Amino acid sequence: MPKTGQLFEHLLTHYRGLFATLVLLPASALYSAYTSTRNLIAFRLKSAPAKHDERVQKVIRQIEDWKSNGAKEKLCTARSGWKTMSEMVPKYKLSHRKIDVGLYDILEISEQRGTVKVEPLATMGQISRDLISKGWTLAVLPELDDLTVGGLIMGFGIESSSHKYGLFQHICASFDLVTADGQCVRCSPSENADLYYLIPWSYGTLGFLVAAELRIIPARKFIRLHYQPVYSLVGYASRTFHGLDLPGTFCRAVEL
Question: Three-state SS across the chain?
Fold first, then answer.
């Protein structure tokens, strides 16, 4: 008689479509509904800014506890692997000290400065919905809704407006980072500039991101499209580089 583990593995391997339809899709829909409702309530009630400092202090207290216990393990976030966009199983977290960074909200939209301040686990879908309701959007808005601000800053982000505004890191006006010594440091081109320029692509090795200020632009209701067909690889490359000088906000190449 097969063991329970072997039976479960057999079912997942040979009946994965049925499992995904009956279990994973309903669970994903319920989780999505929960997070959307929670984020909407926090945004409408504007409760996140009042709680932000308290949540940052919670991160700092966890680091202080790690230090008081001898700082023996390496540090990592406590975010579960199933919540990420990566297929990698984060086994390294089994031996690391996990720090709970439960920061999911939009903190402030400043139309005067043209920025939005957000927490690191705020997603592109969440931010775009709230900004568009006020007539704004991110200057660089990666199109996958579940991508987080923290992931795009610590990793990499690009979109069809990047020929004009740069990579995702280039729309970041400032960062708030909690370092391994338990200090919350604000970084910008004029304040702790060395650290500011090192944070993008650092994959969390410099500290825990707790907030970021991003540049926003007006979101127009309609856009004007211009198609330019090309018929060779050379023509494609030439037109793509020429497109960098076009006045349009978005530039995308499509192969048919």
Answer: CCCHHHHHHHHHHHCHHHHHHHHHHHHHHHHHHHHHHHHHHHHHHCCHHHHHHHHHHHHHHHHHHHHHCCCCCCEEECCCHHHCCCCCCCHHHHCCEEECCCCCCEEEEECCCCEEEECCCCEHHHHHHHHHCCCEEECCCCCCCCCEHHHHHHCCCCCCCHHHHCCHHHHEEEEEEECCCCCEEEEECCECHHHHHHCCCCCCCCCEEEEEEEEEEECCCCCCCCCCCCCCHHHHHHHHHHHCCCCCCCCCCCCC
